[in-house]
Amino acid sequence: MEGFINGIGIISPQKTFGTDDFLSEVVEHNSKSLRCIEPSYKEFLNPVLARRMARIIKMGIAASNVCFKDAKVEIPDAIMTGTALGCLEDTEKFLLAIIENDEQFLTPTSFIQSTHNTVSAQIALQLKCMNYNFTYVHKGFSFESAVLDGLMTLAEGEAKNVLVGGHDEMTDKYYRVCDRIGYFKEETVPTMELINSKTNGSIAGEGAAFFVLSNAKSESTYAKLRGIKTIYKPKSNQEIESKITELLSSNGLTANDIDVVVYGINGDARFDKTYYHLKDNFFKNSTATYFKHLCGEYQTAGSFAFWVASKLIKTQSIPSAILIGDSRSRGFTSDGEQGLAIKNVLIYNTFLDSDHSVFLLSQC
Amino acid sequence: MSSKIYITGMGVISAIGNNVAESFASLENLKSGVGMLDNIRSRHQDHIPVAEVKATNEELTIMAGLTLDQQSTRTALLGLIAAKEAVRSAGIKDIKEFRTGIISATSVGGMGMTENLWNDYLDTEKTGPWLKYIEAHECGDSTEFIADALGVKDYLSTISTACSSSANSIMFGARLIKHGLLDRVIVGGTDSMTRFTINGFNTLMILDKEQCKPFDANRQGLNLGEGAGFIVLESEKAAKGKEILAELSGYGNSNDAFHQTASSPDGAGAYLAMEKALKINGLKPSDIDYINAHGTGTSINDLSEGTAIDKLFSKNVPSISSTKAYTGHTLGACAVIEAVFSILSIKHNTIFPNLNYKTSMEELSFKPTTVLEKGKKINNVLSNSFGFGGNTSALIFSRHQQ
Q1: I need a surface site. Which of A276, B81, B304, B391 has the fewest CB within 10 A?
Q2: What pTM does this model have?
Q3: Do residue B160 and residue A106 have CB atoms under 8 angstroms apart?
Q4: How confident is the model at residue A334 (pLDDT cuts 50, 70, 90)?
Q5: For the domain that residue B143 is a member of, what is the CATH number?
Q6: How many angstroms separate the CA atoms of A354 and A274, rounded?
């Protein structure tokens, strides 16, 4: 199963939207909870409609819209998105109204928009797209399920272009709730220092990233997606390595063929060791990069990594902001200069050490 | 690649029974589970009827074969009870014998706990073992809870497409087998009663203050329900030598793309989903012996669905009923609960009646079946499920032909 990544639209805590730039400048948030840099929505939504919509819905509509334009696709043959928390802001709004008003004087708007499938549904509604429409909501496998479904749908032969996406938002209150169970650090860490942090927890993040996966290459193609694997609660590094090997060998590759690995390192002293084990052993010959200092940790952060991997292949360069320390193997410099060709990129990402995922992308 | 999808096990829990046998007995005895709310406190509990599983979370924990310290959300517990029954009924002794996955579905996940504990979560002075329910808020958490209890590890996912969620988990599971990615998948969904959903649907003014009356001209809305169901799908290889309850012979998903909550008057999305489902195995509308309708009892759904059915079947509609008046509308779980009922219909050549129906809708050509019908051979059952966001899904269950 494979698909061509022919279009991208991404709103994130970095300057990723409406630009061709690839992380040449890092936005420093000075916060433990990175929030998206939002565009003006006028271009994408009627202002009356936009006023009633929560942030995540607007971000989803704007990012998918740009994604379609990038891929020159008007109506996708299928829409599948992943979101662990769905429309958190509306969910919270309705929940608080129930609690504070003791189940009285409620209005339906936030309830209507609170369902997890609202973003997929609103994209379909805006496009009047009656095709296949799915929303996956499985923690760190949400975006990954959408991508697998996308590949399966293309392999089934009837669809030419499918929209896959990952989106999650953070709110002030939900940050405080998750902070109680050790998700986040006590201290604020500068963006470029996160990787050196020795404390527990990470920084919160959010984002909305959409991709058109197609059955054929086009002028706008970024890369070819050659496979995805998810690993649930792996018991050992050996189990992880054998799953990666399965994915690589089914594509006729070995670890040595991977030019760049994009790791989900998030500065959490409890969980980063898996990444370092892979980096220092299994992928010791590959250039190591990371991304969560830029977008924060969230369940669908794999979608940010998917953008990073696509851009690495398309631009054939590695921004210094994502290079890990002294990783200069294979001729890449830390200045983003072009070195040897970036042919194969692998993403290794986990959410809380239980939901692990591997993506394989190649130049085409 | 397995071209056939065999169903070898099923489990269900809802207001009409804690397992398949009890549910079948209630269906046959026209025993509705709609009543008054006992297990959660709500301002509406005396005037809005619901279909509740009459067991406390502690009782469900024991029923699920756990000790009280292993208690989880009501959503997770209901799910585990149904999933365990499904695995047992499929005669699975060693879950690792084949590549096995679980695809669950839910609309509100752990909201039942979140709505009780939200203020405590935000109060850093308070602490306790209940902090574990923070993670349980996420929809995927109940799936992982069930997977861990069953030892399922090869593939996990969770789907939330409102009231069509578990139709889509069945569909996705079947496709994972067809693509050769898994040999066996436990598919279904679970949702518990919450103040969040009771109040949500109440603000939309679509809750009937009496038992719901699907497809009746005087229908007043739906009754909320809670429950869970799981079925075991297996490839030809994995199912070899086992009793096959039925085959999943069709599935279709589309989007109505009409309105965030309301179905289109002509049921365009519903029509497309049913048409796609028939196409999978080349079935014709005339092959369908019984339709287990989504039939929620709301003014809009029943008209939209009925109109789409009239169109697809050229007003030559086979036996049809909604079983929502038995179980209430169990949201993310309704499609799989009705999948279990559809399989029971095939197994026992029985059509379960559409309770509370009196007056026919002028707009539709058909009347639902209102009495328990036995004896007519049921080979193919079409089951519909539609949700907010325009998500429309249809599944077809067929008699296994040796």
Answers
A1: A276
A2: 0.97
A3: no
A4: very low
A5: 3.40.47.10
A6: 12
